[in-house]
Each structure stands twice: as structure tokens, then as C-alpha cells.
Amino acid sequence: MARTTPFYIIGNWKSNKTVESAVQWFQDMQTLWRKEPLDVSGVIIILCPSTLHLTTLTSLVKLFTLPLQFGAQDISPNLSGAFTGDVSGEMLASLVDYTLIGHSERRKYHAENESELQKKVDQAAKAGIEPVYCVQSAEMTIPQNCKIVAYEPVWAIGTGKAETAENAGQVAGQLKSRHPQLSTIIYGGSVTHENVVSYVQTAALDGVLPGGASLDAQKFYELIRQVTQAIRAPT
Ligand code: PGA
Predict the structure, then answer these.
(1) Distance from the CA of 151 to the center of ligand 1, in angstroms?
(2) Which of 24, 96, 149, 155 is nearest to 87 (CA)?
(3) Average pLDDT of 31-60?
């Protein structure tokens, strides 16, 4: 399906991988890419590993010349100072171009509320980092200064039961009409290399956010390959 705007693939590693297994993933990806490089024009690939791995992986990506950008999985609502455990926008700015904000797992396990999420969005803006704001339905509040939103129904996350592309496209349409400032709507929840083409074929969707399917380099490569083929396929 010919697209006039880029299609996003955002891999979310969540709380997975040691430094060693993260490096191994990059070595595996490099081997696959060398064997069969993919034409990724029209595709933006972003990986969100643990913050702990960002320094190592941003060096590796240059060394291996892989077409990957980086995102954080979260950002502190504060600029800097006495906030033990927080990783601030100014710390992340040289390592990432994007950050997830408001993922349902953070809302659930860290009781993140809308006023805190607004502060995170503001800190990302200050640091020049693009927020990927996660919502679990079309009715949820979205801060004014967000352009990219990920629709991720909780029941579809990590369950193997993905939302149909048709329904996800309808929600994307609702989000776009409620929030005209949004440029990019991404779907996340059990996306794999086997179902990703249906999302590429849905005009209202601008990308996907795979979690589990990004953990294995071979599966993530295959998912990228499916997208690169589908965005060029005649309609
Ligand atoms: P999943 O996770 O692909 O493993 O369902 C998606 C997400 O939570 O971002």
C-alpha cells in the first residue's frame, strides 16, 4: 500500500534483556542485515530497550550501521535533582529521539496519573524528545503537545490476541477527529510478523508497537521485512 507518510515500527523491550543478551540481539540483527539488507525508505524503526542499555546500544548501532533509532520507555516528570531512580530528559537527550509515555504497564504498576503524564510530556518537549503517548482507548485524555499516539488496548497486550486492523483503524479515526493535532497513530498489542501486514494495509494507522515480537532479532527482522514489502505492494 503506497503511503505518503512514514510507517513506524517501535519495538518495546520492556524489562527484558541483560547487557549481554542485548548486545547479542544486535549481533544477530547485524548478521541478518548483512545477509539481506532491507530497503527501509518510508519506514522509521525505533527500539526502546532498558535505559540501562542505551549507551552501549547507541554505540553499537553506529558500529554496525543499522537503520535503528532509539526511544526510552519512560522519562522523569522532573528536570533534575533529588529524584532517586528517575532518568531525566536531559540525561536521555543525547541517547534517544523518542520516549514512550503513559504505557498501560506504567499506569498500572506505577500509578501514573494524567497530571504526572502531562509533566513527563513537558519534560520530553524541553529535552527535544518526541513523546509516543500511549492510550488504551479513544476516550482518554491526550496532552495538547503530543503528535504521536499509540493505541494499545490492555486486553491485547502480551496475550497473543491482537485487536483487528479494522477496529484499530476505527479507533485511530476517532482519535484523529477528536485530536486534530495528532499526526501519527500507532497500534500496539500482540503485533507479530504474521499479522503486521493487516495494520500496514489500514490507511488510518501509521505504525505498530510490538513488544514480545521485538525481543527476538530474527522475528523483529522478519516483521520489518513484511512492512517494507507491504508498503510497496500495489493496492
Ligand atoms: P506485546 O506488547 O506486543 O507484547 O503485546 C505491546 C506493548 O505493550 O507495547
Answers:
(1) 11
(2) 96
(3) 97
| Structural domain count of the chain | 1
Cβ 146 under 6 angstroms from ligand 1 = no
Q: How far is ligand 1, taken at its centre, from the CA of residue 209, in Å?
A: 7
Residue 210 structural domain: 16-30+43-71+89-232
pLDDT at 116 over 90: yes
Helices and strands per DSSP (H, E), number in the chain: 8, 8
Q: By C-alpha distance, which of 208, 218, 211, 222 is closest to 6?
A: 208
73 lines ligand 1 (CB under 6 A): no
Q: Which of 10, 73, 209, 216 to mutate to test the pocket of ligand 1 (most atoms within 8 A of CB)?
A: 209
Could you give the CA distance from residue 119 to residue 197 in angstroms, rounded to a whole number? 35
Tens digit of pLDDT for each residue in 156-196?
A: 999 999 999 999 999 999 999 999 999 999 999 999 999 99
Q: Is residue 191 within 6 Å of ligand 1 at its C-beta?
A: yes
Q: Quick check: is 51 in a domain?
A: yes
Q: Does 161 reside within a domain?
A: yes
Atom of ligand 1 at shortest range from CA of 105: 8
Report how far ligand 1's centroid is from the alpha carbon of 160 (Å): 9
- Whether 174 is in a domain gets the answer yes
pLDDT of residue 27: 98
Q: Give the model's confidence band at 235: pLDDT under 50 very low, under 70 low, under 90 confident, else very high.
A: low
Point out the residues that are catalytic: 103, 152
Q: What is the pTM of this model?
A: 0.97
Is residue 179, in this structure, part of any structural domain at all?
Answer: yes
DSSP state of 55: H
